[in-house]
């Protein structure tokens, strides 16, 4: 299959930090279709050769195991091309179409690695230039909008130019191997499905923690915040994967139909429930990894009086028969104690304990990063006497070790799926809009009451009130258990 992959924003951070290294790994692994071209477009004046040198220099910044040798880069660089484009100029889109039509590849993937406010104008210009035929797919990076109204406007413009099956709304968490394994875990193993319900599960916790701060992205982050940056997309997508009903097939729309049902079943927030069940925080100066780090308001390009949240913890419920009454706890934050993304399924205690030391219930930990695997926590008898207390033990599956030769990174997987036209791991417009609809009451409540912001020390696990959020129902976060 021949393909042309076009990156709008071809000199931007996302392209050279994430997308180009992911494409190189696909090339190195022999998974990239052989007859392909990769075109970067941006406002800079560059030649193909100068762009290839630009990418070579940036590859020096990726981790050593993922850097190409000179021979590997020379072969990969032969795929790279560059065009200067003014994204508001129709003639430049006509020139792009002529470049693409000259070869007539089977598939054209247009990846919008730009600021979301440019999505409408780019899509309108693509449509006007005739770059929306059946062989064309458009990939839209997050965040798709700033609120429900802006997301709906972006989707309106996209749908006026492309069909829903041509639109690939990317959420890179869905490309993580461990997230893909959620489907296999739940729907290919008879062991778990009978237990995957309110009768057996006490609560589910989703943690997306980062030890890094905002770096040089302070101006962007201060306009966005943790709720928009992580909860509205990544955390809610994980929640739908863990909570959805079995789809009728592995077809993309069958899966996305079930995810949408979960989003529609989430208990709506009111001003009263936001005050009770949602916590937002902002990091102050502290220690991370033995190093002193500044507070958020002292970061580059962050206002000294900022009320932007760098941490969110919340409690929600899914109002359906499977999950009624089961708390779902979501939290995410920057400058926390560790980089740790995981889903913890805490099972209920046995109804009648007959052994001493049965204070620990079973739990399943689905590790997303930095490790990738599963831990099943059980109780076992340590000694030979019936009076001996039981001891927690765990069965640990490391996916990276078990499937080392077949593992691919999130962006690598998603780029290959976009080229192949597989929509399973991409977000449909109605999913995205429903997620915005659910978080908007939180945004509205915070706008009315900026004083709800809690400070927490960098290097901690967030504001102390986050522990109280789960403790009031007799539960604890994973690191406190």
UniProtKB/TrEMBL annotation:
- Where the record annotates domain Glucose-6-phosphate dehydrogenase C-terminal, the positions are 183-477
The kind of enzyme this is, by top-level EC class, is oxidoreductase
Superkingdom, natural source? Bacteria
Q: Per the UniProt entry, what are the Gene Ontology biological process annotations, in alphabetical order? A: glucose metabolic process; pentose-phosphate shunt, oxidative branch
Recorded hits in Pfam families, A to Z, give:
G6PD_C, G6PD_N
Q: Which reaction does it catalyse?
A: D-glucose 6-phosphate + NADP(+) = 6-phospho-D-glucono-1,5-lactone + NADPH + H(+)
Keywords from UniProt, A to Z, are: Carbohydrate metabolism, Glucose metabolism, NADP, Oxidoreductase
Q: In which pathway does it act?
A: Carbohydrate degradation; pentose phosphate pathway; D-ribulose 5-phosphate from D-glucose 6-phosphate (oxidative stage): step 1/3
Q: Where is the Glucose-6-phosphate dehydrogenase NAD-binding domain?
A: 6-181
What is stated as this protein's family in its record?
Belongs to the glucose-6-phosphate dehydrogenase family.
Name of the protein:
Glucose-6-phosphate 1-dehydrogenase
Q: Which gene encodes it?
A: zwf
